[in-house]
Amino acid sequence: MQYRRLGSSGLQLSALSFGAWVTFGGQIGRDEARNLIAAAYDNGINFFDNAEVYAKGEAEKVMGDVIADLRLPRDGYCVSSKVFFGAVDNPGPTQRGLSRKHVAEACHAALRRLRVDHLDLYFCHRPDLDTPIEETVGAMDALIRQGKVLYWGTSEWSATQIREAARIARAHHLHGPSMEQTQYNLLHRQRVELEYAPLYSELGLGTTIWSPLASGLLTGKYNDGVAAESRLGHKDNAWLQRMVIGDEASRRLDRARRFTALAVELGEKPSQLAIAWCLRNPHVSTVMLGASHTSQLLENLGALELVDRHDEAVWNRLEAITAE
Ligand code: NDP
User: Source organism's superkingdom (predicted)?
Assistant: First the structure.
């Protein structure tokens, strides 16, 4: 495993990390979740990502139980949560968003579910236009001063919003955001490569990137249709299928097919090639993997060996072939 600093902070995260979205508390059972966390940790993964909204808190419970059961040393791994969407069906106005009240209460609930006394990383899962950024920055700073959170960050905030949070923090001597959690893969590049570009040196911003395989699309598993036992074939995920595959005009499936054909031509596994491409970006602090089977996770870990295997011309070809 390689380890990378989270932006300009001193925290070293494994270049590949592991997240619970859709799978924990939903698609997979506890035994598979346990196998996945054990395999991840045994292979050097030291960051596990979660959120209050994943399976309405159930994903955090499963992760907390499994980590406790495996007796992972608390100083040997990092765990995160994210606040914004709430952890109940139809959350009321105080049960969601980024008010001081919900940020604090969601943190306490995540600590209980994950069975830890601090979160290593805590994210504002989306911007909240109904709460002043000053209030959210103050709430995050307070959690850090109380020792309940070590690093806070944002997820899918605009560069302008992140810069504003950092400015407020600096002006009031508060802890500012250390990282952004954003989507990054061969089919979705703009934010990480263009919008956030000035923030890496300006703020020392780290990135924990999600959906490196575009929910599995870049493995080629959807090239010939959507199998019922896959993420996009799951009965509750019709919305996600629309989002990931897009409509005819978006040509995302075509781009994925061209990508998998090139991977095969190169003699590489598409999953590993797609993840290795993400790892090549030095502004990516960690690539968060998802998996419904341990075999997928073990395959994806092989991406680390591909990063330096091909020359620039190959990577350029890959980018050209997947361009919109
Ligand atoms: P990926 O894009 O890597 O998708 C993972 C899924 O793809 C797996 O669950 C599996 O689905 C399939 N897959 C993975 N590897 C293989 C393989 N080798 N062969 C075949 N199929 C494979 O990552 P995620 O979308 O899961 O994102 C990673 C993490 O990022 C999440 O768990 C979550 O923690 C975080 N995240 C954060 C978001 C945010 O808004 N901040 C949003 C989304 C995710 P299956 O087998 O079911 O088809």
Answer: Bacteria
